[in-house]
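Subject: complex prediction, re-run

Hi both,

The earlier run crashed halfway through, so I resubmitted it with identical inputs.
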Amino acid sequence: MYRVCLVGFGYRGRYLLQLLQQLPSVQVVGIADPQATESPGDEISLYNRGDQDYRRMIEHERPDLVVIASPWQCHTEQALYCAKAGIHIALEIRGGTSWEDYTPLLEVAEVAGVRIYPLENTVFMREVMAIGQMIEQGVFGEILYLRGGYRHDLRHLLVSPSGELGGEGAEAAWRVRYYLEQEADLYPTHGFAPLALWARLRREEEIKRLEALASSSRGLAAYLDRYAIEGQRPSILTPDIVTTQIETDRGILISLIHDTTLPRPKSLDYEVQGTKGIWNADRRALYLEGMSPEGAWQTDEPYLQHYLHPLWRAWGEEALRIDQHHQGMDYMMLRTLLEDLAHPGLYPTDLNDLALWSSITPRSAASLARGKLRN
Amino acid sequence: MYRVCLVGFGYRGRYLLQLLQQLPSVQVVGIADPQATESPGDEISLYNRGDQDYRRMIEHERPDLVVIASPWQCHTEQALYCAKAGIHIALEIRGGTSWEDYTPLLEVAEVAGVRIYPLENTVFMREVMAIGQMIEQGVFGEILYLRGGYRHDLRHLLVSPSGELGGEGAEAAWRVRYYLEQEADLYPTHGFAPLALWARLRREEEIKRLEALASSSRGLAAYLDRYAIEGQRPSILTPDIVTTQIETDRGILISLIHDTTLPRPKSLDYEVQGTKGIWNADRRALYLEGMSPEGAWQTDEPYLQHYLHPLWRAWGEEALRIDQHHQGMDYMMLRTLLEDLAHPGLYPTDLNDLALWSSITPRSAASLARGKLRN
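This time it finished cleanly. Structure:
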């Protein structure tokens, strides 16, 4: 039985708890969140006496694993504390914003023999894992082009029901600050993490060239205009659309998009293209030369089934049943993580990956700034 | 009755002839192509005595309009000759490769009072024209992001049936040269022309920033490897995938892709995104906030029908019947062109547009070269 604690009990923390409670060998013993008012269960102690109360929880509960799902700016500090205490960490996306932000944590974790699991759930999607198997087995030939991104309308998370940016009741009021302050791809990992794995990109040095470009920022202002609220409109720095193009040492071109302030259906925009064929996630279709009908898309399902990842073969049925909201990927992630505690090596990513993925934010910011300088 | 001559009688010229013969008020009187062996009709004179024989045709036939559909490298010279002779020109894509290449032609055409019609058929697609109407009427709100490109597997055009790059029987043997010599987006206009019109981008100076990135070039080599042919593999300079990102003065981000040497179904990859919604061509779907079901794609057909362009209302039925191969867009283009001869102002683009569109090739090449320099 693993004793597990949670730091951060917002939208994301609540969902993770619900899944953890349905996993074998897990006993959630504590939750720390300064804004939580009530424990979600009799056996779960609540630590809500301020921002630092999570430390008391760690000392008191001595958990085997801490799940960190607090606001971004708290992640690395909290993780450092847990690592020093010798406790394994499941780390939500995204804490640091550059490789450097994670450096102390990487060092402490190594000395303490602590494992840090990035909770990037897109890596565990059924389609993503199956396509990964196909890429590894050469089904798409040599990979040349990968596309992906975070295309998710977050305006309702950032604006309160009464129409205030970050106001009372906004689901992620803390997140607004980043939109005011950063001209960058704010949240690269959902799109980038699978692409980086598919491209076998593990170190920043393997990025040969990176350029980000951007549109204006109009989406949030247009959204706020619906409400008749007096006073100044805050000036939003984050562009509605940021695209980041990356050339890797292996000759792969990666296209990333960040698109979170315009009305649209959700999409991760994945595409994989090689010398033997192409897969497009939004169409749920692929084309493989010599196998698909000449020049025509074919539904990907029979292929995904054929190349299903072993973890999905093992736990896919329960993942889809228990984690309907996220099509099984969150369940699969936590299940793999727990298995990895006992049998290290199963979890497909580590803190180095997270640091690489997160570095897209400052690098896209730098490219946008360079572009302005040149104009 | 307009007397029309054709310069260039390859794959493209043949199809244009077939359409011209079904248009009202058109009499095709001559065809010039050094490789043509037979006239396609009794009333059509054939001029095939070498590269310059088109000049004899112009002098002899004195047409009202010349359609130029020869290999790219011949376009501007032939167009200049026709313009000097005071004859209107329908100009296939793409002749010049930069604004400068078209400068003499622009000047001569103006002095001679000659109209030059770029034959960029994607501008005349039913969907493209309807979406243009929707953008103009503000249905998508303020436009922030436009995506498009030329994603068309051309390997069979470039490689002969016996497996030689540009060899005997390759449909566009002349085109191979560009793949050997240019590291660039070789053919931007199919993707870019509609985007430029939608973005109201008419002058190069309105491009604030442009960056192209690229993958390796492996597609043609992998294709040639299927044939057991002796000797050296030519080295291909054009990358399999080139993406070009453009920021415009109006704050619109444009994403272009060039993708012609990998196996895939055809796509122009169009997407239009604004403060009120999004359209995706590949899905043939749109999302308009407050109109579409919350967060869900909706088929675009009822909207396209509602916002159908007046030219499609007038000639859509005959376009679809006569030009099935290209879903009516070539017919619509030629029909509009002929109407414009009598009533100038109807044709939506001119040589300035073509020069702007074509300039993506040298600008993408320059950006790729700058990127290498920086590495």
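Chain A touches chain B through 50 residues (CB under 8 Å).

- K.
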